[in-house]
Specification:
Blueprint (H helix, E strand, L loop, with lengths): L1 H7 L1 E4 L1 H6 L6 E10 L6 E10 L8 E9 L5 E6 L4 H4 L9 E2 L1 H4 L2 E9 L5 E4 L5 E5 L2 E5 L1 E5 L2 E4 L2 E3 L5 E4 L5 E4 L1
Parallel strand pairs: 2-6
Antiparallel strand pairs: 1-2, 2-3, 3-4, 4-5, 5-7, 7-8, 8-11, 9-10, 10-13, 11-12, 12-15, 13-14
Length: about 180
């Protein structure tokens, strides 16, 4: 749990990828640990926001993550969507980051991670994806690789017909520290 949280915490960006490949834009992902006012044993809670590098004060995706032990040596990253997204913009810059279960909103998805033989962690959403309503997508899938340089993700949105409407195709998003 702590190792996965450590991989996610901090600031990562796709700016270098965007500079070398015009198919990508510069996105910054900021993730910080939060303190739960109501105890949640054996888990770590994080707040995460993604914004275009040129507009960091307007994140397009915000979420809380609960990193917890799963079954069979798996680590689960459970995603929660806060109801009042404006309230949390820039939350990682706050000196005190305490939240309650009511603040984090409903669980919307999860990624099941396992330790990778070459170091880091590899995981994905359930095969059917997660229900969504994001830029024309009704379902989202993601494959995540956490490694020493950051994270690679194949985040994809699909419409009701099952067609991919946004996201990584042949190349992952490469978030680097």
């Amino acid at each position: 749990v702590e190792a996965v949280a450590a991989h996610l915490e901090g600031v990562m960006s796709t700016a270098a990828q965007a500079e070398s490949d015009s198919n990508f834009v510069g996105v910054q992902m900021t993730t910080c640990r939060v303190e739960m006012s109501d105890s949640q044993p054996n888990s770590v809670f994080l707040y995460q926001e993604q914004a275009l590098v040129e507009d960091l004060n307007s994140p397009y995706r915000q979420r809380f993550l609960q990193i917890v032990e799963g079954d069979n040596n798996r680590i689960d990253s459970r995603t929660f969507k806060p109801a009042e997204s404006d309230r949390w913009v820039g939350f990682c810059t706050q000196p005190t980051r305490a939240v309650s279960t009511a603040d984090i909103g409903p669980q919307t998805c999860s990624v099941a991670l396992r330790a990778a033989a070459i170091g880091g962690f590899v995981g994905s959403t359930p095969a059917a994806g997660c229900v969504a309503n994001v830029r024309g997508a009704v379902r989202i899938t993601n494959v995540v690789v956490l490694h020493s340089q950051g994270m690679d993700t194949w985040d994809r949105g699909f419409d009701a017909a099952g067609d991919q409407v946004w996201g990584a195709e042949d190349t992952p998003y490469r978030y680097r520290r």
